[in-house]
Amino acid sequence: MNKPLYSIRMRARRQGQHLSGAERLSSLEAVEQLAADMVQRAMHHARGRAESIELTIEQISAAEVERRPLPDLQTWLVDDYRQGRRAAAEILRRAGVAQGAIDGAMSQIAAGAAPGAQTMRGAMLVDADSGQRLEPDQARGVRVSRMDLTDQARRKLDSELNRLGLNNAHVREALVLAAKVLSAPGIVAELCWSDDPDYTAGYVASAAQGYVRFPHLKPLGEERGGRAFFVRTEGRSLADLIDYLQKRPILFDQIGRLHSARPWEAHL
Length: 268
Ligand code: AMP
Fold this sequence. Notes:
The protein is α/β, with parallel strands linked by helices. The protein is 29% helix and 28% strand.
């Protein structure tokens, strides 16, 4: 219980561009294996082999680590990415994000939200009312890190995701990342689709609906992806929010309810 944990972060680059990243919290016993797994992932990425890999391992005292539950998970079935984006926009509207902010974030992710129409390394911070971009660096964005599952929660999540046929690294890692984002003060909702050309699914996370997956938020073969965190700071400092997302260590020790997939119309 009082043993320190280790934050492990990996960043891989290829041809001068961000290729892949990963972040975990680990026990001392697991840290070497996790680091090796991350290197392997960067060397066998769907967009090519990494040309440089940065690994950062930092000890964190157990007293700093907060524990929280994961949100519920739903899948809204959609026929294609256009329908997926319409359904995702509906959840964002219900969460209180202005239409202009939704449209702006979607078109920026689709076009490549970093300068030069590249995919960002982290997430955009988007004002939920004005749609204005708030992150200090539009190429890097904000990288959420220092979050993970307890071993017990991981075992439970694995078995529940297996039951739904969803037990893959994309879903597991995105659910944990979204859980940390939703716990941050000032966050209204998150929108994500992957930059992996083979993975068309994406999600919207919000306090009211939890983590809602869509099998299609982009066309197959598309290499551009990204994340938008919609925020309403209401007098709080943006620097504190960024610090929370990047630095506050959180372990998720309980899973939420995991629902079977249903057609998106059933939710409207
Ligand atoms: P992925 O789901 O790993 O394919 O990531 C999709 C996009 O989300 C990436 O292109 C980044 O822009 C962003 N992203 C990935 N990991 C993080 C993270 N830890 N924090 C913030 N944004 C991220």
